[in-house]
Amino acid sequence: MSYQPSQNSHEGDYMSIMRGLRELNLCGPCTPSDLVLIGDHAFPLAMNSQGQVLMAASLYGSGRIVVLGHEDYLSAFPALVENALIWLRGEGSDNPSVAVHHNVWAVAGNFNSSMFQVEVVGAFSSDLKAGVYLTDAYSVDADSKDLVEFMKAGGGVLIAGQAWDWAAQHPKENTLLNFSGNKVSGVAGVYFSDHHGMVENLPVYPQIPSSWMALVVGKDFEDDLEFLLQGVPEFNLPPGLLASEVLVHGPLAFPIFTTDDGRAFLAGAYYGQGRVIVVTHEGVLNNEAMAPFWTNVLHWLDEGRR
């Protein structure tokens, strides 16, 4: 297993968050979620030998977010949390206030009192004067929209939890869209997945960890395809229509229809809290025989807002 420097603009951010750390011993009793990262602003902080991301950070709007794959990591790694809080409040900020959700109030005892002013709160509120909000991933459902606006306006969010237990209890629900933590972190390109993360004693590398093994599908799209293709036995391109090929890449994108030689011309993807369908020729939209498919597409795109 090799780790190569990630070729992006977040090396300085990574170094700030991981400053002074030599290893992260994750071999404890807790099982984290594997985190799925998309977009240019999300980057891993901790990656195991299987390429699974167990801690990550990202930028959103004018704000920042750090995501830990299990809530117990908030107390297990106090130096990491302290570095994260400093990074989250942003360069040049003189706001020492950190709001901590009462479900994780115990972690506040690890903070340096000369650097942070801690306020334990029952829920997030736009009236809070804190520059950073710390919470578990299970307590943000009612406040997710306000938290996203807080982050977009320059606030920092530290959120920790795992989604595999929630997914097991809600087998018919979409974890990427409906797990409460993803309603906040997903807008920044970091998702809690329903996959268990393998725990190891991880060295902290001087550069952002990366691995070819991390290039995996972040979701099983069987349920999406079943929904989209309900009542659609086949998709025939109209005679004479030459569609472009769509390059499907990333862990949350998937082909829907391909040509006989395997080139995709219609694909779907998840992005933030939304969904996207791409078709590479406008003439396909006028195919009346495919009306049931386009009806399915509209319902799929509108998921969660009906």
UniProtKB/TrEMBL annotation:
It comes from the Eukaryota. SUPFAM superfamilies: Class I glutamine amidotransferase-like. InterPro entries: Class_I_gatase-like, TCAF. This is Family with sequence similarity 115, member A. One of its GO terms (cellular component) is plasma membrane. GO terms for molecular function: transmembrane transporter binding. PANTHER family: EXPERIMENTAL AUTOIMMUNE PROSTATITIS ANTIGEN 2-RELATED, SI:CH211-210B2.2-RELATED. One of its GO terms (biological process) is positive regulation of protein targeting to membrane.
